[in-house]
Amino acid sequence: MQLRNNSDHYGWLAILLHWGMAILVITLFFLGKYMVDLDYYDPWYKAAPDLHRSFGVIVATLLILRLVWRLSNVHPAMIGKPWEQQAARWVHRLFYALIIAVVISGYLITTADGQGVSVFNWFEIPASFQGFENQEDIAGEFHEWFTSILILLVGLHALAALKHHFFNHDTTLSRMLGFSDSEQIEQGQIEQEISQTTSYNHHNSKE
User: Structure pTM?
Assistant: First the structure.
């Protein structure tokens, strides 16, 4: 597998960015739900929010890398009917917009009292915008809404990929798993030949 995309398949960097962000977004969603119910004496009371913020910065960094990489690379031809292709384009745009909104609202929550965002205690992102009335509460509400819509979109995206794989039998999912269209077609031909051979042998055994 090569580094860059081509018209046939995704390169390994695009695949790593896709799955890395997917794992982090899902993990951060459930970590966020978990940490809001922690009491002061829980050992994760401080550690969980610190990790949540730090990995949130990682997600923001990966998003920038992914956008730069996407704009500087060819994109494999989209598969499906015209309306499916158009829907996929808008879903990806919405993904990017929601992740940006989640990151900004999370930043506003943390910096509402003038505190910067510490990233794994390695460095700190300063609080450059704070002070509007009820900033933490307002940003928190938006953060919750944005993350809920985002995780719903992730679920729909996953269902669409499975639909393409198991019902349409196309290469939408396999390409993001690192298989090229030609490899998928060849594999499909092999499976078809095996199926035909099995059917033929079964028919002969009856005779």
Answer: 0.83
Amino acid present at 96: Y
Which ranges of the chain does DSSP label H, i.e. alpha helix?
12-35, 44-71, 82-110, 135-163, 172-176, 181-206
Q: Is there a domain that residue 23 lies in?
A: yes
- Quick check: is 199 in a domain? no
CATH number at residue 135: 1.20.950
pLDDT tens per residue, range 110-126: 999 889 999 999 999 99
Give percent above pLDDT 70 in the chain. 86
User: Cα–chain-centroid distance for residue 17?
Assistant: 8
CB atoms within 10 A of CB 164: 19
In b/e form, how buried is each residue of 92-130, taking b as 16+ CB within 10 angstroms? eeebeebbebbbbbbbbbbbbeeeebebeeeeeeebeee
User: Per the structure block, which two tokens stand in for 162?
Assistant: 């499975």
Token couple for 59: 């997600």
